[in-house]
């Protein structure tokens, strides 16, 4: 099975051009996709910082609990560090990219005290009521932690997964750091497993409704154990996976406008909240022809056919222009995450000489081949979103405006029809609606806000196509 079959599995998601003659520059898109993360950095910025309109911020984070929590990433257009999606972002970068130390260094700080894991830094409700640059933050930088009496298995296990995945990346280049990462991953996973409970009950409004865990924490525990098995080859983690998959919920719940919806079989879900499809694909990659992997491979096949457009078992819809849609906001998070996962599984199928045929039509939707003729990556192409929902991007930089912006001093920049002051190069926004329509407005949060967990999976996809363009044209 060659590259053509790999292509067929991911065509429909809008990442490979098969219509028209113009080529997409995957190298440029990849460089910008990675550059985006510099715009999301919190902490003391290095001399190598290329997105120069961003400056140091959050330099006292963690001081309220006598911890050093300086660093890491702001999740989206706000100034809060949500460690649950940040850990997922780091795991995705580790699965496809070796430039992830900014994330792992921070996660090591967040897990530095045994029996305690920092879940969130910054009061989300107060932060979201202010339109401030991260350099000016004067809202409370409260550190929300989970511990033995107030557990948070999903955020802890997700961090363990990220650290274990990153340890594999650093193994050849920095063994000491790699060993440190895997040792911490083992410690944090043990804490997550021994003291089970959801962080949404422990940290309350700091988690919900921002990054509530709607489908339980068992998928994160199994996901973490899978990465630990890959990192250590210790059979006890494989036994943990096979023993505890029975606790994974068959249906995935998504809350939309305050109402709970059972949207699809969990085997077709993958993102910062649901890890089910990722577990199945990762196990397939690790064990290949091992008989113990058969149930996971079958579920991974089910995942493929749950999203391909011609499949009779698909659980998604498509816009007229060919973009995959799932219910909820910020649809591009599904497009990029599922694209990455399908690429990983397609590679497994090629090496295992297996195939899943469920469809083969699409366009380079994200990067501009769509009915709007718009790239949904900021700074890529001639037409891209100009008014993204992002505080630092919309407000004048410190270089241009030395005085501090107070909580509401920047409000006029929310409502202006002018483009954002600073271009957040590489940011993937939430994207168009189910009819391919996009409203370029900061208040249109679902469509116009970027997020790290939308960019992170796309890095691996673009890297693959950068090296493999010759196969597709």
From TrEMBL:
Keywords: Carbohydrate metabolism, Cellulose degradation, Glycosidase, Hydrolase, Polysaccharide degradation, Signal. It catalyses: Endohydrolysis of (1->4)-beta-D-glucosidic linkages in cellulose, lichenin and cereal beta-D-glucans. One of its GO terms (molecular function) is cellulase activity. It comes from Erythroxylum novogranatense. SUPFAM superfamilies: Six-hairpin glycosidases. This is Endoglucanase. The active site is at 389. InterPro entries: 6-hairpin_glycosidase_sf, 6hp_glycosidase-like_sf, Glyco_hydro_9, Glyco_hydro_9_His_AS. Residues 1-20 form the signal peptide. It comes from the Eukaryota. Its EC number is 3.2.1.4. Belongs to the glycosyl hydrolase 9 (cellulase E) family. It holds the Pfam family Glyco_hydro_9. One of its GO terms (biological process) is cellulose catabolic process. Residues 26-462 form the Glycoside hydrolase family domain.
